[in-house]
Design a protein that fits this description.
Strand order of the largest sheet: 8-9-10-3-11-12
Helix content: 25-40%
Order of helices and strands: EEEHEEEEHEHHHEHEHEEHH
Largest sheet: 6 strands, mixed
Radius of gyration: 19 Å
Structural class: alpha/beta
Bound molecules: adenosine-5'-triphosphate
Amino acid sequence: MVRYQKIGKSFGDVEILKDMDFNIYPSEKVAIIGPSGSGKTTLIRMLMTLERPSAGTIEVDGELLWHKKINGKLVSADEKHLHRVRGKIGMVFQQYNLFPHMTVLRNCIEAPIHVLGITKEEAIERAKTMLDKVGLIHKLDAYPSQLSGGQQQRVAIARALVMRPKIMLFDEVTSALDPEMVGEVLAVIKEIAAEGEMAMILVTHEMDFARDVADRVLFMDGGKIVEEGAPSELFGNPQNPRTKAFLSRFHLSGRHL
Ligand SMILES: Nc1ncnc2c1ncn2[C@@H]1O[C@H](COP(=O)(O)OP(=O)(O)OP(=O)(O)O)[C@@H](O)[C@H]1O
């Protein structure tokens, strides 16, 4: 469903991602872990069309994201094309990025009305369903500044879900939260994951969370995927040689990287 082929990314002279191949299958949950600066965020920002790849192609549902093929040649896609394909993808960021001057409800209905073109009534219906799902139906009229960090992040998740994406990208969504709020946000994500149909990419430092939610865990280092497997293979039995190698290679003795 999503296919990265020979993806490279440089910022100036600095090569961040090299020749990367990577697939995500429908409804698959993939956790990406790895040291700071290894390129995890850059990898998913390219799928959200926030960073343009320097090399390679990305396909979503068999359709090129950043390119079009004209007479057998790849050319850059126009904004209209990017906009359409990006409609299949939702993203939740480390900083919740809510509009501070809008209520919770309005934060959740702006994009579906203006981007998807649905009616205000339908957008409100959808928003209420999703705010209920994240446990915040009683906060419809609150402003972001009246909410805790965990609640704001749950609104950001609801806002992304209202768009009904096929793939959700979570970029270290608990990193900016006070420790006591991490659990409530992870619980909401686990619940959404358990519903099954949506594919998810989760960039996270939370090892337990990666193990519990992901079908597949990727470990990135130096702009490459250096280890990949099912959580049971990588975290399962500490006596298992592969688990031992994984943990010792990356010095993963504790809960966090
Ligand atoms: N817009 C940019 N311009 C220049 N360099 C950038 C830009 N965005 C990212 N980088 C650099 O690319 C490298 C990879 O960054 P990225 O955020 O993808 O890593 P990461 O694995 O997500 O790290 P972290 O866990 O700290 O968020 C870093 O060295 C970063 O400084």
